[in-house]
């Protein structure tokens, strides 16, 4: 029952609808009291031989009237109570999605995609059930139960009623004992469902790798393990739930036995008429449904409560990103001053960056290179404010980047990540994703900078070509270039390319770099790359290894250093030359 008080914020908000709904249920219950009473009255008239045709027609007319009234009242409560439950579903879904949008990288590392999807679907459905069928079952069983008990006492006999309902106390005891167990069982069942979701998501996304490595059978066996666990958890919860109904039948049976013995004796001793006993038994029959409903009510409430716990836990997760104490309202622009004394990832104590400092003036281009795992992406992560907690400071135009509102700050950055993501829509909308009002000319210009315009022109449907999961497949290089076009479209103050030219050939790479330089004379650019030719023309180049700067200078200065940059540049140049020769012979 605690779930009702935890959802009280919603019931308060929709109190009018719920009040009308419960009122309609009350009136339906009042309507239900009438037919058994009519039956009793008619039976008595028959046994006393006083039944007339007019009396019969009047009672039949009354029955019809009550049936029509009941129809409209049922429509009303359904609209009010079930309608409200869908409002709760919408509110929770929107809150959860808004929360997902707000959360940082650490959150997405902690929670698996399948978990998040299970919360957004199954758990919300279970909570909606509380606000719809749960409220209905509770109100209806209480109203019907109490009104039937009242009618049994009022119209027949209070003492007999008391004896007949005495066994029902057992049901309350049973509900109390099983309640907590059902809650735990549902928690496990929902967690197992999350695991299945996660497994399905991972297997579908990684299907190519799975097949390539011939791991389908192993993966199916793993999947079967998750399903078995889920079924085990479900079986347990349904076993507990199934204990309710047989017990309810036994309790109702005992009540009937008591009624027939004590009611029969009362008729023999003329304390009640035979018609009143018929009415009493008919009221008892009406009581059967609310009794069975208590079983399903507990199922709904415990399931909803377990799911609400899971959703609340998720909504309670806080983003580790800093909310500015002295918010800077101006647009972030000016020189970028990066001074990182120490940084480690939240879940890892190893120092990822150690004394990394640089200043990048407006309009300059900086390259970041270095051995794999050296710290290039970490520098970019910090610039992108994936993490706000570190020993150091990053300023733009002398303002700490954490003093800008996150959206304002990120709006000034065009970012092309290592892994590209295409949305399931056409190429045009994929390019203008961050600025959907961009004109056709702006989209074409962005595609030109990314050297993608000719590829698009060759596609049968040009900019209308559908891409993403449901569309045509683009090559790795095309995906990278589309991501670049998306990032340059809004002409950002800072453009960051994180190893995003790796899948294009050297000629295309040169084209893109030249066009970026021409079109972004005032814009600042950072290029992290494995291929040194990508940063050759940069105003300054950082070489990072083991989280620290091992070389810093221009291309010429670094060559003169005759260190890692010099060695790697020569090695890559030789490889490129060899590849070129092989290609020309092939
Ligand atoms: N999310 C993370 N949590 C914990 N450690 C991380 C995380 N991301 C990176 N690291 C670690 O930080 C170090 C630097 O990694 P980073 O990705 O910045 O290197 P990189 O130079 O970009 O490498 P690559 O060229 O292979 O992309 C590595 O030791 C890596 O294992």
From TrEMBL:
The chain crosses the membrane at residues 56-77, 135-156, 162-179, 247-268, 280-301. GO terms for molecular function: ATP binding. Residues 338-571 form the ABC transporter domain. PROSITE patterns: ABC_TM1F (PS50929), ABC_TRANSPORTER_1 (PS00211), ABC_TRANSPORTER_2 (PS50893), PROKAR_LIPOPROTEIN (PS51257). The keyword ATP-binding applies. The keyword Iron does not apply. This is ABC transporter ATP-binding protein. It comes from Companilactobacillus keshanensis. The lineage of its organism: Bacteria, Bacillati, Bacillota, Bacilli, Lactobacillales.
């Amino acid at each position: 029952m605690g779930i009702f008080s935890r959802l009280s914020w919603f019931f308060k908000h929709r109190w009018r609808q719920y009040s009308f709904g419960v009122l309609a249920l009350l009136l339906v219950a009042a309507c239900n009291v009438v037919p058994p009473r009519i039956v009793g009255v008619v039976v008595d008239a028959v046994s006393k031989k006083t039944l007339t045709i007019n009396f019969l027609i009047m009672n039949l007319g009354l029955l019809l009237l009550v049936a029509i009234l009941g129809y409209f009242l049922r429509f009303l409560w359904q609209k009010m109570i079930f309608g409200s439950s869908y409002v709760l579903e919408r509110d929770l879904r929107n809150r959860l999605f808004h929360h997902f949008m707000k959360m940082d990288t650490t959150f997405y590392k902690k929670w698996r995609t399948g978990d998040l999807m299970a919360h957004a679907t199954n758990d919300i459905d279970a909570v909606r059930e509380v606000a719809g069928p749960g409220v209905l079952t509770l109100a209806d069983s209480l109203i019907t139960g109490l009104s039937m008990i009242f009618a049994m006492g009022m119209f027949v006999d209070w003492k007999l009623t008391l004896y007949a309902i005495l066994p029902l106390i057992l049901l309350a005891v049973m509900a109390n004992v099983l309640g907590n167990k059902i809650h735990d069982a549902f928690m496990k069942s929902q967690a197992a469902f999350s695991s299945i979701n996660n497994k399905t998501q991972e297997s579908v996304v990684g299907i190519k790798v799975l097949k390539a490595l011939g791991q389908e059978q192993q993966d199916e066996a793993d999947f079967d393990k998750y399903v078995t666990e889920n079924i085990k958890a479900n079986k347990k919860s349904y076993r507990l739930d199934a204990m309710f109904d047989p017990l309810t039948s036994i309790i109702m049976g005992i009540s009937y036995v008591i009624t027939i013995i004590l009611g029969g004796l009362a008729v023999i001793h003329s304390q009640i008429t035979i018609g009143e006993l018929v009415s009493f038994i008919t009221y008892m029959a009406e009581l059967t449904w609310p009794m069975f409903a208590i079983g399903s009510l507990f199922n709904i409430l415990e399931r909803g409560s377990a799911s609400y716990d899971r959703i609340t836990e998720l909504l309670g997760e806080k983003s580790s990103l800093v909310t500015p104490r002295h918010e800077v309202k101006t647009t972030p622009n000016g020189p970028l001053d990066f001074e990182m004394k120490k940084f480690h990832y939240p879940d890892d104590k190893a120092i990822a960056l150690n004394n990394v400092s640089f200043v990048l003036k407006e309009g300059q281009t900086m390259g970041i290179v270095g051995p794999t795992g050296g710290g290039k992406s970490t520098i970019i992560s910090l610039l992108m404010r994936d993490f706000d907690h570190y020993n150091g400071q990053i300023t733009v135009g002398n303002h700490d980047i954490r003093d800008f509102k996150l959206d304002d700050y990120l709006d000034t950055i065009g970012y092309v990540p290592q892994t590209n993501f295409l949305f399931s829509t056409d190429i045009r909308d994929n390019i203008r994703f961050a600025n959907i009002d961009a004109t056709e000319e702006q989209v074409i210009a962005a595609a030109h900078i990314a050297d993608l315009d000719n590829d698009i022109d060759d596609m049968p449907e040009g900019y209308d070509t559908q891409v993403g999961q449901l569309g045509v497949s683009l090559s790795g290089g095309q995906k990278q270039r589309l991501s670049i076009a998306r990032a340059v479209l809004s002409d950002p103050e800072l453009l960051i390319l994180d190893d995003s030219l790796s899948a294009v050939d050297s000629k295309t790479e040169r084209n893109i770099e030249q066009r970026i330089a021409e079109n972004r004379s005032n814009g600042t650019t950072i290029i992290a790359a494995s291929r040194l030719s990508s940063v050759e023309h940069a105003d300054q180049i950082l070489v990072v290894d083991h989280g620290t700067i091992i070389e810093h200078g221009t291309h010429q200065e670094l060559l003169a250093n005759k260190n890692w940059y010099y060695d790697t540049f020569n090695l890559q140049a030789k490889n490129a030359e060899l590849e070129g020769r092989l290609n020309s012979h092939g």
